[in-house]
Amino acid sequence: MALPDLLPLPPFTRPVRGDVRIPGSKSLTNRALLLGALCDRPVTLTGALASEDTHLMAEALRKLGFTVAADEEAQTVRISGQTRAFSGGAVDLYVGLAGTAARFLTALCAAARRGVYRLDGVEQMRRRPMKGLIDALRQLGADIRCLGAEGFFPIEIRARGLRGGVVEIDATESSQLLSALLMVAPLASEAVEVRLVGGVRWPFVQMTTRLMQDFGQPSIVRLAEDRFRVPSGHGYVHVDGMYSIEPDATAASYFLALPLVSGGKLELPNLRGPGGGLQGDTQFAAVLQRVGLTVTTTARGLVAEFRPGAPRQAVDQDFSGFSDTFLTLAALAPLLQGKTRITGIAHTRKQETDRVSGMARELSKLGQSVKETEDSLEIDPRPLRSGQIIETYRDHRFAMSFGILGSHDLLGNGRPWLTVKDPSCCAKTFPHFFELLEAVRKRSVEP
Fold first, then answer.
1. Domains of the chain in sequence order
2. Residues of the chain with pLDDT > 70: what percent?
3. What is the 3-state secondary structure (H, E, C) of 95-124?
4. Which of 7, 139, 245, 363 is the most exposed place for a label (fewest CB within 10 A)?
């Protein structure tokens, strides 16, 4: 469905009901695409996400010589042709604004034995952090040349493999830098000892290491809090050739929050609760429970429920471990009782946009009192101001978060009071978000 540049959001006039099937995880899909490409035989991913980010990753793998056959309707992707990949020559790879594709493909090409690979993306991608990964790969013998500013895209890699040994990496700006290094470390000629410089957000790194084990790698040896060892000589393999992708826990955050806005009950099949599955963002469900949502785990998935008129309490939450979901809570903050305080989000200033300042700006536009620091937002609710247009900054998470706030029937007459600009930016990770939201709204008013 083609979306207009300006999308007025029809609110829910009845409590939400029914179920919503969340698409596959972007983080898991792009990691599994990379690890499947490193296997010695074909691998089929089921429940795979079809979005802009995963399309960019799949197309880059095709340019590198892999066969990637996707069936969007069946939600499957088959990776094969591993023996034909990296045949040499020069290859240009385009990653758009996909951070996972940028970091993972940089590491993959640096680990190749031959070939020249030039990687670039949109202008904003040229400002996203790459230096920690580039520096680490160079320590392992990679020839990486920055064609613009040092430590950023565009880059050129003259592949000659990785030699292993001790490597230091600064992944404070993005855990994807460390994940990328870890996934190619087993390809080095010797074991790799990784030493962290500064901290790292562990949930996504743990997702990576558990996925590596699913694809045949032995456990990474933790030598100290900031030092661990990745063995070499173990090829990637998935014994049965099939890997199932979990529903996206970050994408689920919006629909988990929806009952808090509209009241009612919504089932999310196949979704895991806090601490379940591979994704750290499942922890967001626990945050919503503190706000007042009832979340129940069933044999089918999760059920989110909220009684209309019940209190919605503000919370003070460190989001450093699952920061992609902080915008969902921030967008809900005007409806909560008390001040909402969100911390651990400084690194999100260097994602698709400066998410901290952007969120402060849009909430202020809606009449909210917002205090912004480098690492936090404090939102003191004020009466919502209608008739505003939300700027999304080409950032899918702004569009989806305010899509949920706009589902609140502010005027009490079912008329839109909030408009989202550029809603099609959701194509990055959740192409049919607004279509699905509208389907749920219509179903909720049916007799």
1. 6-22+248-445 (3.65.10.10), 84-228 (3.65.10.10)
2. 100
3. CCCCHHHHHHHHHHHHHCCCCEEEEECCCC
4. 139
Query: Considering only CA atoms, which of 16, 6, 29 is closest in space to residue 244?
Result: 29
Mean pLDDT of all residues in 248-254: 97
Query: 176, 204 in Cβ contact below 8 A?
Result: yes
CA gyration radius for the chain? 22
Active-site residue, selected from the candidate residues 135, 170, 248, 324: 324
Decide if pLDDT at 447 tops 90: no
Is residue 388 over pLDDT 80?
A: yes
Q: Mean pLDDT, to the nearest integer, of 248-258? A: 97
* Residue range 386-414: mean pLDDT, rounded: 98
Angstrom distance (rounded) from CA 67 to CA 47: 19
- Measured CA to CA, the distance from residue 105 to residue 34 in angstroms comes to 8
User: SS3 string of 126-148?
Assistant: HHCCCHHHHHHHHHCCCEEEECC
Residue % of the chain over a pLDDT of 90: 94
Q: Is 324 a catalytic residue?
A: yes
| Separation CA 259–CA 404 (nearest Å) | 10
- Structure-derived torsion over alpha carbons of residues 95, 401, 330, 421, reported in degrees to the nearest 10: 80
User: Can you tell me the distance from the alpha carbon of 163 to that of 137, in angstroms, rounded to the nearest whole number?
Assistant: 10
Vertex 150 angle, CA 145 and 154, to 5°: 60
For the record, the structure tokens of 283 come out as: 């922890």
